[in-house]
Design goal:
heterodimer, A: 188 residues, two-stranded parallel ribbon, 3 helices, 11% helix, B: 229 residues, mainly alpha, two-stranded antiparallel sheet, 5 helices, disordered N terminus, disordered C terminus, structural constituent of ribosome (chain A), Ribosomal_mS34 (chain A), Ribosomal_mS26 (chain B), ribonucleoprotein (chain B), Small ribosomal subunit protein mS26 (chain B)
């Protein structure tokens, strides 16, 4: 007898896995201490995983996928967040997967680090504004400070004194990355 | 509605088919679209939209441009915000810098002015309060006089009533003259059995002979019976 073939119809999704409640509700002690991954974040070569610290059940709402309040210790793109993160509003997404305990080493031993982006501290003004400012102040090449707000999950930082920034924010197209330089063939 | 609108559109080539034959004047020329509140069309219910694939290079490049644009825009906004703050701090239009002596003098000036206002208002208030007090006194006086008058009238009326009662008390039936009154009443029975015409003439009954001297009472017994009834 031939194997029964399941044929899916309808819209496809990028999610793969279960909702958080489906995983957590089955485990002894609510799975505290176990490792979780979001399959969506496995696109990055750097390790992205979470470890469950605390679970709080939330009542099921009619007509909604059941949510759960889970506090996790999060490592995202190889950077461990300093504070525990609470997952609640995204816990309904069927994208979570539990890592078997013998496979946790795969994530823990992944030591790839993201190359840090160093932003310049000063950049050029846009052309029209630059004209206005030049006319008003007489300054030849007025510059403005780069807006940057430091948070714990940002992978970029402002350049230190005398440091060379790794990206340039000139007015214009800028320098495309080597991956996408093919798009500009014959143009640049 | 939409379908009808489309019909109108197809009929536009006809000379009289613009809006004439239809019961409505709505005509979508430019945006021929389903209104938002209508559900998905029957023919589109099971349509699965194709998901566009982005190549790696395109995605990377768009991300880079996007990041660059957003950072630049945020920086411009920050620059303009700081510019406004700087302008507010340095411009003298609404931000006059004073020495401590000047500030003290200004304060003293304000204080004097305030005191003068207070004095003026106090004067006005005094005058108003005095006037109000006078009015109040006059009003109370008036009310007191009116009350006295009222009291006197009342006393006078009571007096008159007492006098009238004393006058009437002369004809009262008391324990002393009770027997005499009964005697008099028995001796003079009153018969109300009479008639009066429009001219005021009195027509007495045939049996009330004791009141009318002219006609003697032949049979007083039935009359007494009638009265007792």
């Amino acid at each position: 007898m031939a194997q029964k073939v399941i044929k899916y119809i309808g819209r496809t999704t990028d999610f793969r896995g279960n909702t958080l409640w489906e995983l957590v509700s089955e485990l002894p002690n609510w799975g505290v201490g176990r490792m979780l991954i979001r399959n969506m974040f496995q696109r990055y070569p750097e390790p992205c995983y979470m470890r469950i610290l605390k679970v709080q059940a939330v009542d099921e709402q009619p007509g909604e996928v059941r949510k759960v309040r889970v506090t996790v210790e999060k490592t995202w793109r190889g950077v461990k967040q300093p504070k525990p993160v609470e997952i609640y509003s995204t816990s309904y997404k069927a994208d979570y997967e539990l890592v078997p305990q013998d496979q946790e080493a795969k994530y823990l031993n992944n030591n790839q680090k993201l190359e840090q982006v160093v932003l310049p501290t000063k950049i050029d003004l846009p052309p029209l504004l630059r004209e206005y400012v030049t006319e008003e102040t007489g300054e030849r090449n007025p510059q403005m400070k780069v807006h940057f707000k430091q948070t714990h999950n940002k992978l970029a930082r402002l350049a230190q004194e005398g440091e060379k920034p790794s990206v340039s924010f000139g007015v214009g197209l800028g320098q495309p990355k080597p991956v996408s330089s093919k798009l500009y063939e014959g143009l640049l | 509605m939409l379908r009808a609108g489309c019909q109108v559109l197809t009929q536009t080539a006809l000379p009289a088919g613009k809006t004439g034959g239809n019961s409505f004047a709505l005509e979508f020329v430019r945006w021929r679209r389903k209104p938002r509140w209508l559900p998905v069309a029957k023919s589109k219910v099971f349509r699965v939209p194709e998901r566009k694939k982005q190549t790696e290079e395109e995605r990377t490049e768009l991300m880079r441009l996007h990041n660059q644009y957003k950072t630049q825009l945020r920086s411009v906004r920050q620059y303009l915000r700081e510019e406004v703050v700087r302008h507010e701090e340095t411009s003298t239009a609404d931000h006059i810098v004073l020495t401590p002596e000047q500030e003290e003098a200004e304060f003293q000036k304000c204080l004097d002015l305030n005191a003068a206002w207070n004095a003026r208002i106090a004067k006005e208030r005094e005058a108003r309060l005095a006037k109000e007090r006078e009015e109040k006194v006059a009003y109370v006086q008036e009310r007191l006089e009116a009350k006295q008058l009222r009291e006197e009238e009342r006393r006078e009326q009571a007096n008159q009533r007492v006098l009238r009662e004393i006058e009437l008390s002369k004809t009262y039936i008391t324990r002393e003259n009770l027997d005499a009154a009964i005697e008099a009443a028995l001796a003079n029975p009153v018969d109300h059995n009479f008639a009066i015409d429009l001219d005021g003439n009195l027509y007495r009954g045939r049996n009330t002979s004791q009141l009318t001297e002219a006609s003697p009472n032949p049979n007083p017994e039935p009359n007494q019976q009638a009265l007792s009834n």
